[in-house]
Structure formats: structure tokens, C-alpha cells
Design brief:
Blueprint lengths: L2 E7 L6 H11 L8 H6 L6 H11 L6 H17 L2 E8 L1 H5 L5 H19 L2 E9 L4 H11 L8 E5 L11 H9 L3 E6 L5 H9 L5 E4 L7 H9 L3 E4 L1 H6 L11 H6 L3 E4 L4 H4 L3 H12 L3 H13 L5 H18 L1
Parallel strand pairs: 1-2, 2-3, 3-4, 4-5, 5-6, 6-7, 7-8
Helix pairs in contact: 4-6, 7-8, 15-16
This protein binds adenine and zinc ion (ZN).
Zinc ion binds next to strand 1.
């Protein structure tokens, strides 16, 4: 079925083969001797154990062409899974901290997005994420560096190490972004408590919550998310690989949907977590017994929660309805 992907970190789509190819062409040393050895290191115990290797992998990205090639590889893969709309996170501070210019990052990614529309029929746009383990001043400086490219990204997000870095740490920079008309999202309730989801909503005033699976621990929060139709961009294989749930069968996606929340399914960092969009859907459905009605709702939610215009959402929903009608 056609669907939107709303939670994909483009640096998390960098496959080991591409890491090795870029390391070779850019003369960057990496701590692993082969693709297989690198893949074997992808055994994580929590979010931080993943982030350490994820930031190391991103160190091979130096030139505009590298950022383009990474995004293009993801977009081709997404199109193969019938993703018709993608809102793509990128982490500029991971690159600017190594001396890579903001323009190199954004121009390379943006060129791939433009090509995706023409060559793959995929609508793709960019969301700039601030790294929450760094200071708010660093985020403000990053925003300043990105403003010359304001027309090339549609919003901002908040990612990296969650626990100990609550959303309210970034109140001023999100306020500034809101004034600039940028869309706002934040990771909250991945490993962190429901309190972080509350402050993402009430202090940062985000429009969607990335992950948010810890929300089921707080009935009042569940009610708020349902009433305000705040979408959660849930990433089941990520939650499994980062040990948020011991098994996929234990995932609370069904509880979220059945409580009337606008949950969606997404891939997060597919190169690291063992699956792109369709793999996230098929493995989650196999493990949790979700139904065809849930599948429709998940895809419909992904379009409704996207940052596109009403006419495009209607066109996407018509495509989805046509698929389900054909199957009935
Ligand atoms: N950056 C990339 N993937 C992430 C995740 N799952 N949580 C927080 N930050 C991330
Ligand atoms: Zn994420």
C-alpha cells in the first residue's frame, strides 16, 4: 500500500557497503576491517550503544556528493516499498562539528530530494534535527548557519541521547523556529518518561511526537494525544533492536492504535535496525496480529500527519483507498 515515512534519520540509512565505499573514496579510516565485521558490531543494548556507532559511521560523509548519494540510496529503497512521501531527518551538527559546511550537507540532501520527485515520483523533504546531548547555544548557532538554506528544509526536530536531556532544554531555539514558520517535531518517550512527551507538547509546542511509546504509562497523556490527534511516529524494529521492548510481540503499537492515537510505522535507522518500511510493517504485523483495518489506519495516519497540503493528502488517501478497494 502507498504510505508516508515520517521518521527516518538519513544518516541511519547509510548501509555498511556505502560506508566502506565512501571511506575509501574520501581516505577516511574506520575501525572495522570489513563490511561483515561492521555489521556484526550492530548489536545494541540501548539507545546510547547505537548512537556511538551511528555517529562513527557518519564520519565518512565529507562532500556534497556523499550526502546526495546517501539520500538517493534511501529514496530508491523507499520507493521500492511504495513510500510516496518522505520527511527526512538530518543531523547537521554531526557534520559541522567535523568541519563540513552546512551548505554541503543541505545542498547534497536537497538535490536528491528534488531528483526523487522527478525520477521516482516520491515527494521528499528535509527536517533539521538538533542533537539534544549538545547545548541549546550550539543548536541556536546551528539554526543560524542553516538560515541561508531556509527554503530547503520544512521543519526542525530533536534527537540523540534522550534521558537527561528533556525537551525544555531547547525551549528558546524551538520558540525561534516557530516564529520562522518551521514545522516542529521532537523525539520524546522513546526511552525517556511521559513527562518528556508533555513538555515536548506544552513547552516546545511540537506537532508530532517521534516514538512516544512510553506514553502508555500515563493515562492522562494518552487522552491528550488522542483528543488533539497528535501523531506518534513509531519505529517497531528500532524499539526491538534498542531493547525498548524485549520482543516485537510485546510492542504496544496495537494499544496505541486501539486507544485512538494517530500512530504511524516508520524505519528510524533502517541500515542499523534490520529493515526498511515494508519490513517494519510485515514483521510487526506477524508478531502482534494487527489486522488489515490497522494497516489502512496506519497508512491513513501517515498521510494525515504529514506536513503537506490538504489537496495532496486527499490525493494520497485516494491512492490508498484504491488499493484497499482492489483487495476487497
Ligand atoms: N538518532 C538516530 N536515531 C535515533 C533514535 N532512535 N533516537 C534518538 N536519536 C536518534
Ligand atoms: Zn529517531
Amino acid at each position: 500500500m502507498p504510505k508516508a515515512e515520517l521518521h527516518i534519520h538519513i544518516e541511519g540509512s547509510l548501509e555498511p557497503e556505502l560506508i566502506f565505499a565512501m571511506a575509501a573514496r574520501n581516505g577516511v579510516a574506520i575501525a572495522y576491517s570489513s563490511v561483515e565485521e561492521l555489521r556484526q558490531a550492530y548489536a545494541f543494548s540501548n539507545l546510547q550503544s547505537f548512537l556511538d556507532i551511528y555517529y562513527a559511521g557518519a564520519s565518512v560523509l565529507l562532500h556534497e556528493q556523499d550526502f546526495h548519494d546517501m539520500a538517493w540510496a534511501y529514496l530508491e529503497r523507499a520507493a521500492a516499498d511504495n513510500v510516496v512521501h518522505a520527511e527526512i531527518f538530518f543531523d547537521p551538527q554531526t557534520h559541522t562539528a567535523r568541519g563540513v559546511d552546512m551548505g554541503v550537507v543541505i545542498n547534497g540532501l536537497h538535490r536528491a530530494c528534488v531528483e526523487a520527485k522527478a525520477r521516482l515520483g516520491v515527494d521528499a523533504s528535509l527536517i533539521l534535527c538538533f542533537l539534544r546531548h549538545l547545548s541549546e547555544d550550539d543548536a541556536l548557532e546551528t539554526l543560524q548557519q542553516a538560515l541561508p538554506y531556509r527554503d530547503k528544509f520544512i521543519g526542525v526536530g530533536l534527537d540523540s541521547s534522550e534521558v537527561g536531556h528533556p525537551p525544555e532544554k531547547f525551549a528558546r531555539v524551538f520558540e525561534k523556529c516557530r516564529g520562522l514558520g518551521l514545522h516542529l517535531v521532537a523525539h520524546a518517550g522513546e526511552e525517556g518518561p511521559p513527562a518528556y512527551v508533555w513538555t515536548a507538547l506544552d513547552v516546545l509546542k511540537v506537532e508530532r511526537i517521534d516514538h512516544g511509546v512510553q506514553s502508555t504509562k500515563d493515562p492522562a497523556l494518552m487522552k491528550r494525544l488522542a483528543q488533539d490527534r497528535i501523531a506518534l511516529t513509531v519505529c517497531p524494529l528500532s524499539n526491538l533492536k534498542l531493547c525498548v521492548f524485549p520482543q516485537l510481540a510485546d510492542h504496544n503499537i496495537r494499544e496505541l492504535l486501539d486507544a485512538g492515537l494517530a500512530a504511524t510505522i516508520n524505519s528510524d535507522d533502517p541500515a542499523y535496525f534490520g529493515g526498511y518500511m515494508n519490513e517494519n510493517f510485515t514483521q510487526t504485523f506477524a508478531a502482534t496480529g494487527l489486522t488489515a483495518a490497522h494497516a489502512y489506519q496506519l497508512a491513513k495516519n501517515s498521510f494525515d500527519a504529514s506536513f503537506t497540503d490538504a489537496a495532496t493528502k486527499r490525493r494520497y488517501t485516494d491512492m490508498l483507498d484504491a488499493v484497499f478497494t482492489a483487495f476487497e
